[in-house]
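Inverse folding, one chain.
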């Protein structure tokens, strides 16, 4: 059985990814990460599969992530994990920058620190669910920052310092976009440090979930009028990065599972990004 951890999987895109994994691949077992164990249990009951198990996992907490890693380590009983999907995310609303960075970026770092040693050394994969808000944020940055955000050799210390400086400066204007640009940088950093693994990022697309519904409500338009798709449609790129042959590593993909640039938006159907 290929064992896969999905964080923030009790609803929305995370839950849809769990369902797609179980439906499309009979040889999989999913650890359904949920910061609230009860909400995770309910989600697991909805799925109704004996190939899924809830893991209490709050990516914002060192202790919770460490305890979850111990639980998964005991459950796999000496075997390795095939995949990790870092899906948990917040921040389209009014959350403070520090809070958003703590979940969307430091959350991925915490999960990597605690779970990467459990991943299969040669075939293991990590998929980070970032967002087109990342490249859209970078497109508006000055040249120095743009160079930073496209650097495949970026190190965690530099990402950490950039985030701390942004919090100190009260740079709250686009907390979500900044967090997703940093999460793309962290993806490159992790891929560079673990070349035998496949570690990539993708956007699910514009998907109707609890994250985006308030935006639709405030705009006075329906999710469909705004072009939002279903959570199921939002799994395409993540499933590609988990299971298909991949040409590169540390790359960012659009919702159509096509490689996309880190410093400008690429619409689904546009030609693939072919840069370094
Ligand atoms: N929807 C879109 O259009 C869109 C577009 C681009 C990228 N994304 C990204 O896709 C991912 C999933 O978002 P979604 O749209 O499915 O939103 P959602 O329905 O709000 O689901 C978010 C999930 O993350 C979990 N979560 C939040 N904070 C957490 C924490 N500290 N620890 C563990 N889990 C936590 C939530 O758990 P609770 O139920 O406990 O809150 C929930 O399970 C996010 O990374 C988001 O940024 C979404």
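Residues assigned per position:
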């Amino acid at each position: 059985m290929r064992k896969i951890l999905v964080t923030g999987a009790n609803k929305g895109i995370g839950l849809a990814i769990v369902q797609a994994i179980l439906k499309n691949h009979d040889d999989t077992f999913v650890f359904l990460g949920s910061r609230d164990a009860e909400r995770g249990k309910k989600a697991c009951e909805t799925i109704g599969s004996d190939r899924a198990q809830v893991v209490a996992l709050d990516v914002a907490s060192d202790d919770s992530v460490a305890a979850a890693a111990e639980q998964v380590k005991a459950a796999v009983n000496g075997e390795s994990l095939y995949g990790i999907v870092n899906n948990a995310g917040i921040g389209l609303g009014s959350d403070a920058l520090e809070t958003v960075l703590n979940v969307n970026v430091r959350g991925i770092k915490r999960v990597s620190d605690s779970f990467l040693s459990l991943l299969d050394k040669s075939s293991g994969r990590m998929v980070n669910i970032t967002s087109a808000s990342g490249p859209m944020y970078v497109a508006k940055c000055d040249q120095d920052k743009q160079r930073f955000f496209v650097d495949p050799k970026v190190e965690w210390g530099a990402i950490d310092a950039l985030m701390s400086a942004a919090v100190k400066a009260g740079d709250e204007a686009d907390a979500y976009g900044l967090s997703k640009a940093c999460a793309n940088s962290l993806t490159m950093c992790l891929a560079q440090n673990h070349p035998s693994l496949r570690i990539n990022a993708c956007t699910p697309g514009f998907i109707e979930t609890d994250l985006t519904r308030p935006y639709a409500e405030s705009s006075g338009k329906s999710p469909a009028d705004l072009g939002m798709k279903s959570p199921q449609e939002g799994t395409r790129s993540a499933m590609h990065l988990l299971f298909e042959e991949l040409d590169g590593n540390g790359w960012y993909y659009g919702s159509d599972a096509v490689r996309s640039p880190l410093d400008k938006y690429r619409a689904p159907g546009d030609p693939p990004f072919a840069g370094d």
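The chain is about 45% helix and 10% strand. The chain has one domain: 2-253.
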